[in-house]
Fold this sequence. Notes:
single chain, 103 residues, alpha/beta, CATH 3.30.1330.30, 4 helices
Amino acid sequence: xxxxxxxxxxASKISAYIGFALKSRAVVIxxxxxxxxxxxxxxxxxxxxxxxxxxxxxxxxxAAGTECVTIPVAEVFxxxxxxxxxxxxxxxxxxIINTIESK
Length: 103
């Protein structure tokens, strides 16, 4: 699991992509729901999650054959109590990863 910090520009772009995913109902919110969901393409975990929750998300990512990245979720998602997001749309997941990894 990679940890990333986000510039304001990257946070804004990722927030827009998550907004698109929300509108298309391609977001799963919460550790337990992500673990139970099918078709997750990307898992975004907050840095403040407990080690046990992070371990469960890593296992879920491995089982789904997808990537789990740690970012400050509060900077990209409007609800501050959300600590984990699963993205189901493959194109939005790729766009988020490309934004996170871009320089």
